[in-house]
Amino acid sequence: MPLLILILLYRHYRNQRSGIPTNWPILGMTPSMLTNSHRIYDYATELLLHSGGTFKGKGPWFANMNPLLITNPLDVHHLLTKNFSNYPRGDTFRNIFRFLGDGLITSDGKLWEINHKVTISALKHACFQDMLETVVWNKVENGLLPILESISEHHTEVDLQDIFQRFIFDTMSKVLLDNDPECLSLDFPYNPCLKAFTKGEEALTRRAVTPQSLWKLQQLLRVGKESKLNTAGYTLNNFVYKCIAQNQNDYDNMINGEQQEGKFKFFTALMRELKDIQSDTSVHPTKFIRDVLITLMTAGKDSTASALSWFFYNLARNPTVEGKILKEIHTHFEGKVGQRWNTEELGKMVYLHGALCESLRLFSPVPFNYKSPLRPDILPSGHQVDLNTKIIISFYSMGRMKSVWGEDCMEFKPERWVSPKGGIKHEPSYKFTTFSSGPRTCVGKKMALTQLQIVSSIIIYHYHIELVEGHTVLPAGSMVLSMKHGLKVKLTKRSEMN
Q1: Cα 404 to the chain's mean position, in Å?
Q2: How far apart are CA 373 and CA 384, in angstroms?
Q3: pLDDT per residue over 283-337, tens digit each?
Q4: How far apart are CA 159 and CA 321, in angstroms?
Q5: Phi, psi of 214, deg, nearest 5
Q6: Residues 165, 205: contact at Cβ < 8 Å?
Q7: Binding residues for heme, per the UniProt record (predicted)?
Q8: pLDDT in tens, 200-232
Q9: Annotation-wise, does 442 bind a ligand?
Q10: What is the rounded distance in angstroms from the CA atom of residue 80 to the CA atom of residue 84?
């Protein structure tokens, strides 16, 4: 027995030096995974860098939890596009993210096809983009700018991430549910739904790195993260179902001729699309609409707030980039101060687009993607996949791989996205994976970019942002790449800098 202990300790010491976690008897690599769960994205990147971009983990013997982490773009293309039908979300993924219901993120097969058709059709409605831009600009003018003005006048520090989360929660609620919670107010009111999203995402991330038997036991006992997830689910369902009931009432009155159809409403578009296919399905309309809305809220709210937070973090660390974007704004919108800049005009700003893409490359709002095969397969890299393999695509790590982005992959270079002729340079979606790739490409990509372009340009135009000295910025351990301690900054009005 002493000899066995010495051997295990030697293996542990050797593995620590090599960067590879020790594969312990019975427990596998679980101790290392749990120990590093607070920095799981950077830990996964370290493992992948030490193992050539692909890493095969080993979970406890009783859990059937042996993940294969990948970053090879050809493997990603194979999984997400070329052999898409062989890699559904799978039961493991659905069990982890059951909190979201059966929306686009969790569903497979026929139900996913219905979700995709209904959601895409509603988002592509002729009036949707105009409504989105109106909602965003209203919130900018009546919420964001007045708050930033007050903070600037009082020379106080502020958590910019908190402001972005409130901003996006308000705009997404208004766009999807026709309900503005008004979280973005001068008194920064407490909102249980906003908090519920954060707590729910933290719990879901912990599920992903914990054996199912353990988190299901916590769920049964209602302790730890599972208790918080249960409370978060109750809070969000209350909010969403109340909004659905109000929208349903308005829709019924309109159908019965009791009121005129007024402004475009996303709920109405969803109901009409669902009505067209409902005769061919057994979908329960209220549950279906709830799942669509919760999915879009979850995917859109925190991912866009995350993207904005990391963008301004990168901007604060790269003042030269900030100067070039400011110059581009003045060039494009000279004489249009006080007007609402539309996304068609903003889309012509090549350097701003490059800076946004560069930030998304390094800090992908959705760091991981999970896949399970229906049939055994061999990836283009030569790695074998069997029925028990749980594949994790590390989008976060892909942005940090020299093999994918070159020797300067850790540098923040918007020029990476500018073509030799001065236009926007496009990269394949299986290399730049922020919006995923293949049939499951993010349906809200245009919606996210609209908010990113409007909010980033208007803030840069009016304010210079500095990071608070001594404030530590780290990724939080959640399913969306938020900042663990927020983004503490100081604001200075451009007009006061001359």
Answers
A1: 21
A2: 11
A3: 888 999 999 999 999 888 889 999 999 999 999 999 999 999 999 999 988 777 7
A4: 22
A5: -75, -45
A6: no
A7: 442
A8: 888 887 887 777 888 888 888 889 889 998 999
A9: yes
A10: 5
